[in-house]
Write a structure and sequence with these properties.
This protein has helices at residues 19-25, 28-36, 48-55, 59-72, 86-119, 125-160, 169-195, 207-241; strands spanning 5-6, 11-12, 256-259, 262-266. The chain has 270 residues and is mostly helical. The protein has two domains: 10-72; 89-266. The chain has a two-stranded antiparallel sheet with strand order 1-2. It has a two-stranded antiparallel ribbon with strand order 3-4. Strand 3 and strand 4 form a beta hairpin. The longest helix is centred in the middle third of the chain and has 36 residues, at 125-160.
Length: 270
């Protein structure tokens, strides 16, 4: 590995960039910097080598972590989850979506409060933003536990039953309550979008400010996909099996209505 190119990332010329410039051009690098305590905000004018020397960090290790983050970032989910088995879909939701939420939670909460503390006098909406970020994760924590302890095992048990075995109708009705929780989370995401002006940072935004908005935008996109896959694929399979269609809630993302087993137009027109 040389000073100019990170393997398999197609990113070159990094020797000439400061850590602040890296974080601005490739926001996923901010997570690596935060993990290792590299200051890309007030200390953003240092080169990566200088930042590592200041903290006594292994430069090659940090480069490797950056390369991994950049390789992973553009990967698109191309699996057709409509065709996946229930076990495959649940594994994906729990690993990719639940895992992402738990990974991002401490970082986003800390960033939201840091940015509100530093910039709140000039941008008073940041106090409300930090409070809303807290609320989103307070809602998500028990929701994920409920899914992993009760919902997912019940789906797996049904999937392993003999072909044609109907799911328990009483359990299927409980899915409506989970979808109402999804809708509540969707309202909070709408609030976050409003408070961030659609994740558009102001001109005086520092690197921490930018990292917060980028992270919230990613969380928003992931939750849209997450809730769509649960409401309209996983839950809908059980609803169709018991002939008791569940009306989709007005949560985030495109929601497909299920009527007599046929998809109707999406609520977002997409």
């Amino acid at each position: 590995m040389n000073e100019h190119t990170y393997p398999s990332t197609e990113i070159s010329g990094w020797q000439d960039l400061t850590v602040g410039q890296m974080a601005a051009r490739h926001p996923q690098s901010a997570r690596v910097f935060e993990t290792h305590g590299i200051d890309y905000c007030c200390g953003g004018k240092r080169s990566l080598r200088e930042a590592c020397e200041k903290l006594g960090l292994d430069l090659e290790m940090i480069r490797a972590d950056l390369a991994e983050a950049l390789r992973a970032a553009p990967l698109a989910r191309e699996t057709d989850w409509e065709r996946a088995t229930i076990a495959e879909l649940i594994d994906h939701i729990q690993t990719d979506h639940h895992g992402f939420i738990r990974m991002e939670k401490p970082r986003l909460i800390a960033l939201a409060h840091k940015v509100a503390r530093v910039h709140g006098s000039r941008h008073p909406e940041l106090e409300a933003l930090a409070a809303t970020v807290d609320d989103v994760f307070l809602e998500l924590d028990p929701h994920l536990e409920k899914e992993e302890r009760a919902l997912f095992p019940a789906f797996r048990k049904w999937a392993q039953a003999a072909p044609g075995t109907p799911p328990d109708a009483a359990f299927a009705k409980h899915l409506k309550g989970l979808e109402e929780e999804h809708a509540g989370i969707g309202k909070m995401l709408e609030t976050i979008q409003e408070l961030t002006s659609g994740f558009q940072p102001p001109e005086d935004a520092c690197n921490s400010y930018l990292a917060l908005f980028h992270g919230l935008e990613r969380l928003n996109a992931d939750l849209h996909e997450h809730i769509h896959e649960e409401n309209n694929i996983l839950h809908a399979r059980m609803a169709r099996a018991v002939s008791a269609p569940i009306a989709p809630q007005s949560g985030p993302g495109p929601v497909t209505a299920i009527r007599n087993g046929d998809p109707a137009e999406t609520c977002c027109g997409r």
